């Protein structure tokens, strides 16, 4: 993808700054991927946390190294593609990560051609928003079934939420459920 963007913008992908320049390497593309390498890490972490990676997605080599099979590689590529299409706030606007990468490469091109005097090539900030934080887990574990029913939810919903909160695995909550968990906390703290 970054190689394609460098070509679209008109940069020579072989002329890099950090990686060795040889005719067989796209050094600039390798340089430009560095600030965004964390997106691949997030994709892999997401797959592992969701239990999507299986032992059949790997092969053990004769040196006891693990290598991805095509099935595992496809999963990572698909998840990475999802990451590139995720919305992020950048320069006061909602953009996808792929568009942010395009903007940063274009910014470099403008700097190199003196259309821009300053280059701000700091990677954009990215916050991982986890719903299943320790605080949320504790709130769920502290809610009584009576209080939960007063908020309009069934006992079964709270039961499954408590099971998730007790486990080490990540979980998500629907927005309306999270809102009621926080509403419960406000009600309880207002009674004290």
UniProtKB/TrEMBL annotation:
Gene3D superfamilies: CRISPR-associated endonuclease Cas1, C-terminal domain. InterPro entries: Cas1, CRISPR-assoc_Cas1, CRISPR-assoc_Cas1_C. Keywords: Antiviral defense, DNA-binding, Endonuclease, Hydrolase, Magnesium, Manganese, Metal-binding, Nuclease. The keyword Transferase does not apply. Signal peptide: none annotated. The keyword DNA-binding applies. GO terms for biological process: defense response to virus; maintenance of CRISPR repeat elements. Pfam families: Cas_Cas1. One of its GO terms (molecular function) is hydrolase activity. NCBIfam families: cas1 (TIGR00287). This is CRISPR-associated protein Cas1. It comes from Methanosarcina horonobensis HB-1 = JCM 15518.
């Amino acid at each position: 993808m970054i190689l394609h963007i460098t070509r679209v913008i008109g940069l020579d992908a072989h002329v890099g700054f950090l990686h060795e320049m040889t005719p067989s390497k796209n050094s600039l593309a390798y340089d430009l991927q560095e600030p965004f390498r964390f997106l691949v890490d997030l994709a892999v972490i997401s797959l592992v946390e969701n239990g999507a990676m299986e032992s059949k997605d790997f092969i053990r080599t004769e040196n006891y190294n693990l290598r991805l099979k095509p099935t595992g590689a496809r999963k990572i590529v698909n998840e990475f593609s999802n990451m590139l299409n995720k919305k992020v706030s950048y320069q006061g606007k909602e953009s996808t990560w792929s568009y942010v990468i395009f903007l940063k490469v274009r910014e470099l091109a403008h700097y190199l051609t003196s259309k821009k005097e300053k280059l701000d090539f700091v990677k954009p900030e990215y916050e991982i928003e986890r719903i299943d934080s320790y605080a949320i887990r504790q709130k769920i574990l502290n809610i009584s079934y009576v209080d939960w029913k007063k908020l309009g939810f069934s006992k079964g919903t709270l039961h499954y939420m408590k099971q998730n909160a007790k486990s080490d695995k990540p979980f998500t909550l629907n927005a309306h459920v999270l809102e009621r968990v926080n509403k419960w906390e406000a009600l309880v703290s207002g009674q004290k």
